[in-house]
Structure formats: C-alpha cells, structure tokens
Amino acid sequence: MDNVKDVLQWADDLIFDKTGEHLTSVQEAILTGVWQRKKYPQIAKDYNCSASHIKKEAAKLWERLAEELGEDLNKFNFRSKLEKKHNVSQGSNFGYSVQVNEGSINICVECLHYLNDLQNRSHSPPPTSQTKDRSPIINLTEAPEITNFYDSPSGDSFASRTTELSTLKQWILEANTRLITIYGLSGIGKSAIALKLIEQIQTEFDYIIWRTLNNLPTLSTLQTELKQFFSQSQENSLPTVIDYFRTSRCLVIIDDVQNIFKSGQIAGQYLPSYEDYGKFFKQIATSFHYSCLILLSWEKPREITALEAENRPVQTLHLQGLREQAAEILREKRLTDEDKWSELIAIYQGHPCWLNIIAATIIELFNGSVDQFLAQNDIYLGDIEPLLETHLERLSESEKKVSYWLANQAEAVDISQKPANLELSKSEIWQAIQSLGRRGLVERREMGERSYFQINPIFQQYIQSQKISAHPQ
C-alpha cells in the first residue's frame, strides 16, 4: 500500500466494521504523519495541538488497530507491517492473507468486500473529471439566478470576495473538508459566492448538484433525488448517498437550510420530522470520502459547532458585507458625491441587497445625491424593514428580550455581569447571545482579554424605531 489515502480508508473501514465509528481527524493526522515517517512532535505541530495529545491519541489508535489485526502495532512498525499489504493472495472464502515479514495478518471476512473494491481502484482520491477526460455532470436547475449587482467594469464580479473564495477552495481542494456551512443574512451573497466557487473548481469533481430546501423536502426525498442524479451515468446504482460520495467525487450544495429550522426557537433547532437532516450532516462529516457538502443558510446548524469541536473536517464561513467592490453597486446606480460613498457603504455594512435598496431611495428622493441623503443624519431603513422583520420574527422570546436590551446599549457590552433589568438568568442570556451570533445578528468584539457583544447596527436602528417591547408576548 503506497498511498496514504489508501491507508486511511483501510484503517477507517477496519475500525468502522468493528465499532461503527469512523476515524477522527486527529487519528487521520497520526496515520498520515507516521506513514510519512514523521515524529509525534512534528505531527502535533502540523495538527496545531500538543505532542502529549498526539501521543495519547496514538496509543489508543495503535491499541485499537492491534486488537483488530491480532498484531502488536506502534509508530515504529506500522508502516513496515502495512506497506507489504499489496503482497496479497486470495486464500479461502473466509478472507485474505496479507504476508508481513515471516508471519501474516489475517483480515476478517467483513473487510473482504473493501479489499476486493480496493484492488480495482486507483490508489489515490477518486479521479476528477480532468483525469477521466470528461466534463463533470452538473445540475444547477434549482440554483437562483444571480443579478449583476456585483458586476464591475473589469468584468471581475467578485473582486471583493477573493479572500473568501480562496479560503473555500483551500478547504475543499487541499484540506479535503467534507462539510462546509456558509451562513449570513439574507441577500448577503451566499448563493452568489457558491456559484462562483462552482465555476472555479468544477473540473475537480465528477458530479455537482444544487438543491434547495425552500419547499421543505424530507431527507428521504432529497436523498432519492441525489441518488438518481449520481446514478444516471453508472451501470449499477448504489444504496446510499455516502456510497456515491466514496466512489466518485461529488459536490452538493443545499440552499435555504434555515427553512428546516424552527421559528421562535433558539437558532438551528429542526422542525418536527426533519431532525434526520442533522444526522445526515453528521454522517457526511464523519464518513471517509473525498466529496463535499456545502450548506447555505441564514443560521448555523447547532450540530456543526459540536463537529468543529471534535476537529472533524468541517468548516464554517460567516459571510459578511462586500468591501471595495460595494462601490460598484453605487456606480452602477449612477449616484453622485463619490467622496461620500465610503460613509454610505459603512452605514449599510457593504450589504449588497441593502445598498441596492438604499441607492434606489436616494435616486427617488434626492436625485442620486449621497451627500444630501447623509445630511439628514438618520439611518434610513425604508424598504429594508421587511427584510429585517423576516429575520427578527424567527427569534425566540429570550433572543427578543436580549436583542431589545442590546439595541438600547450605547456600546458593546460585557456579558459577564447580568443586567438587573433583564428577566432572564445568566445562562439564558448567554444562550440567547450565542444563538443571535449564529444568526449573524450579534457581533463579538475583542477588547484586551475580554469579549464584548453588540447587536448589528442596522437591526439596532430597526428595533429602536419600532419600539419593540422588552417583554414580547
């Protein structure tokens, strides 16, 4: 076995057959490092953790693998015992015998199906469409049509998203991240950046499909659609989505994920009968494969945080407003007083949808003059209000109370001290702020060694203007 990815999948299948659990990311790092003849301190440095943690996890891993193989294993003999794995002869109907030095490792019958499959596969990640000399199969029928409000005269419509795009590509193509969540306010550009990402990396995949949860399909319905899409070019259909994720390189984008979450509850809680989506997302993150699932949502699913804490190949991108490129929106609308544009962009946080709406207002009421608009010294919301209300109506009662409290603070607050006028426990306040952060409505600011929290200024203005009750019914 001369490819580390074969080693990882071999070990993953071996452990999963026995325990029902997949390799953790730290176990993958250990196996990869040892296979590359690295020492534990170097593995720890690469993994960004302590050497003692790697040593502890490695001891447990060698013990588990040794238990399965009936052989003593450690960092010194692991590669020597496994690199002769291709000296394989099919023995009886009970499995394979792998010659190792003067003895042999008897692989259990449960692993036979995997070894048969491995013999017929390339010892590398599933080939991309480039290596197969054919274009990927793509279905974007459910993807939204993106208007040209990002466009620039140079034709580079995403110049201000360069950093985000580079990060996403690194996660997918280099770090083999299996589950990515892109979350942010409605209209911030989640779908736009996902479509641009597809344009830039599509040749790395065999299948690319975009699905939306706008009509609340059950998980069973979604999985059936995915399997039908993946199987269209294959002779034999496979039983599960994960099987397709393992045998081909698939990119799946699921849009409008917030629709399967409850309104009026803490962020990321599933609607009744939709809880199995959470299990599906976890399966994608913990199963060994070279595919990627991207979730687009207004709010971050709760189980994502737990998976990130376990150092799974999971990443989250909180998409925020445009930077330099936001000026192109105002230029396209032919607004005047260009020296004032940066102030306008700062007030509306580079949010492309909000800027388009406000630009239309400036044209209607001030003949396109940004200077006259800003001279009113008010944060005008106008047609933005219905968009803000859509977000706020999803909040739980505790989130509404905390939002009102934050909206009436002149500065970012330290939550270590419970406010006397807020009828919530400290735990409820913390949970509400955490949930508001997962919706992109509360921002954290670091001041020295402490964290301070502030509600989004536009939502602050809206809450104050509406005089929303501190004790919503």
From TrEMBL:
Pfam families: HTH_VMAP-M9, NB-ARC
Organism for this UniProt entry: Floridaenema aerugineum BLCC-F46
Domain (NB-ARC) ranges: 163-258
SUPFAM superfamilies (UniProt xref): P-loop containing nucleoside triphosphate hydrolases
Protein name per the record: NB-ARC domain-containing protein
Ranges where the vWA-MoxR associated protein N-terminal HTH domain occurs: 3-84
